[in-house]
Amino acid sequence: xxxxxxxxxxxxxxxxxxxxxxxxxxxxxxxxxxxxxxxxxxxxxxxxxxxxxxxxxxxxx
Length: 61
Hints:
Layout: E1 3-9, E2 12-19, H1 22-40, E3 44-49, E4 54-59
């Protein structure tokens, strides 16, 4: 099953990346959040299953 990490900025979706494992996707989202926030203006991130169900999310102002 694939998991998609979706990065959101104030104007909507900024970037997407696909991973084979939930843990890998979640670890990527949490480890890169502060960097992407500073570099790309990211305000939130989600990890979604193929079915579209959200399995992880994080947001900061």
